[in-house]
């Protein structure tokens, strides 16, 4: 590359051509370095940090003491506080508080309060905050007044004020919002809704939605029920003052082959008084011989209930049912249908009215 230099001698200007290889690249590097250093010196209240991995960055070894308004690190960034956006290929490590948003391919670790949003491919850990934490695997915090969304687990030592959504599990102390988990929710006092694929555990929760709900000040009972087809079940009903879950097993005394019965569902208490209440239940059940054939039934039933003392309850009421079966016993189990239709695969679908009755013992 040719570079022209002008030399002044005895009042006359002379041009000298020099061949300097890579002068443009060198100049660009100097310009870029000067620009980054200038950005990094914006002031103690907010710097810009550009780096590879601590301490290879514009903030150098002092990065752990700096407050940044913008951070971009190829692998790992370290700072005292973040007020704006933070990007890291692997991890953002912030000793104190954050605002704005933190993005990382693996993890965000915040020692103080997180007031913005944290996005991590694997895990977010922080002291507390009123923002949102979104992680591919887990969010772990001391307390949280914002929202937590994780592919596997949310774990908060103290209280949650908005929502926890976990693919498998949520754990908190008092919850003023909601917990939604694929398998289990665990909390103390819950003022919102607990929704779990299988089990909810709480000291106090009026609206747990799960198959099993272990609520300390709630209700648990063992019930014996039967219906118009002589399917007799022993069920465990558990929940809060309003919502409860149902799970049970039993035997059908009408069939000879498909006799083993299984049931799961949800229920709600209405019009509650000292001696009476109305239970509305939605259940799914099946009859099995563990060999061939299928019998599945969905049921909605209204069960007026009479309480006899503190621990005994009797109930009975109508049910509306939908059945799907491809067995001869299943097709003959119900004689009268509101509507029925056969498919080409020899499966009967039918709607029919029935009834359910039983008694329950609370404990």
Please specify the SSE layout and strand pairing.
Elements: E1 2-9, E2 12-19, H1 23-40, E3 47-53, E4 56-57, E5 67-79, E6 81-88, E7 91-94, E8 101-104, E9 107-113, E10 117-120, E11 123-128, E12 132-135, E13 138-141, E14 147-150, E15 153-156, E16 163-166, E17 169-171, E18 178-181, E19 184-186, E20 189-190, E21 194-196, E22 199-202, E23 204-205, E24 208-209, E25 212-215, E26 219-227, E27 231-239, E28 243-252, E29 260-270, E30 276-288, E31 295-308, E32 312-325, H2 328-333, E33 339-342, E34 348-362
List the keywords.
single chain; mainly beta; Porin; 21-stranded mixed beta sheet; 2 helices; disordered N terminus
What does this protein look like?
It is a single chain. By secondary structure, the chain is mostly beta strands. The protein folds into 3 domains: 1-40; 45-215, no CATH class; 219-362, Beta Barrel (Porin). 7% of the residues lie in helices and 60% in strands. It contains 2 helices and 34 strands. It has helices at residues 23-40, 328-333, and strands at 2-9, 12-19, 47-53, 56-57, 67-79, 81-88, 91-94, 101-104, 107-113, 117-120, 123-128, 132-135, 138-141, 147-150, 153-156, 163-166, 169-171, 178-181, 184-186, 189-190, 194-196, 199-202, 204-205, 208-209, 212-215, 219-227, 231-239, 243-252, 260-270, 276-288, 295-308, 312-325, 339-342, 348-362. The strands form 4 sheets. The chain has a 21-stranded mixed sheet that branches. An 8-stranded antiparallel β-barrel has the order 26-27-28-29-30-31-32-34. A two-stranded antiparallel sheet has the order 1-2. A hairpin with a 6-residue loop joins β30 (276-288) and β31 (295-308). The longest helix has 18 residues, at 23-40. The radius of gyration is 33 Å and the shape is elongated. The termini are far apart. The model is unreliable at 1-44 (pLDDT under 50).
């Amino acid at each position: 590359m040719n570079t022209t230099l002008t030399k002044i001698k005895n009042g006359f200007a002379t041009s000298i051509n020099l061949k300097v290889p890579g002068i443009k690249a060198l100049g660009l590097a100097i310009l870029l370095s000067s620009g980054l250093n200038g950005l990094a010196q914006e002031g103690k209240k907010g710097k810009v940090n550009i780096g590879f991995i601590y301490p290879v960055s514009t903030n150098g070894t002092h990065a752990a003491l700096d407050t940044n308004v913008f951070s971009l690190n190829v692998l790992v960034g370290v700072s005292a506080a973040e007020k704006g956006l933070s990007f890291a290929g692997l991890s953002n490590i912030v000793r104190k508080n954050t605002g704005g948003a933190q993005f990382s391919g693996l993890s965000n670790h915040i020692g103080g309060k997180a007031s913005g949003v944290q996005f991590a491919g694997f895990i977010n850990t922080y002291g507390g905050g009123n923002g949102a934490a979104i992680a591919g695997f887990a969010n772990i915090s001391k307390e949280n007044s914002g929202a937590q969304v994780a592919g596997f687990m949310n774990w908060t030592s103290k209280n949650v004020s908005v929502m926890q959504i976990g693919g498998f599990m949520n754990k908190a102390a008092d919850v003023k919002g909601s917990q939604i988990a694929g398998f289990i929710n665990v909390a103390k006092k819950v003022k919102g809704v607990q929704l779990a694929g299988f089990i909810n555990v709480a000291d106090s929760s009026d609206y747990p939605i799960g198959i099993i709900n272990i609520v300390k000040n709630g209700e648990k009972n063992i019930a014996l029920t039967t219906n118009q087809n002589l399917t007799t079940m022993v069920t465990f009903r558990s929940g809060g003052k309003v919502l409860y879950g149902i799970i049970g097993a039993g035997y059908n005394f009408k069939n000879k082959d498909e006799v083993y019965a299984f049931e799961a569902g949800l229920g709600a208490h209405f019009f509650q008084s000292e001696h009476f209440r109305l239970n509305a239940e939605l259940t799914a059940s099946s009859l099995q011989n563990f060999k061939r054939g299928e019998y599945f039934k969905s049921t909605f039933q209204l069960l007026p209930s009479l309480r006899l003392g503190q621990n005994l309850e009797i109930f009975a009421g109508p049910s509306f049912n939908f059945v799907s079966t491809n067995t001869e016993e299943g097709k003959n189990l119900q004689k009268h249908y509101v509507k029925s239709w056969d498919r080409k695969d020899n499966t009967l679908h039918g709607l029919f009215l029935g009834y359910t009755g039983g008694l329950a013992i609370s404990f």
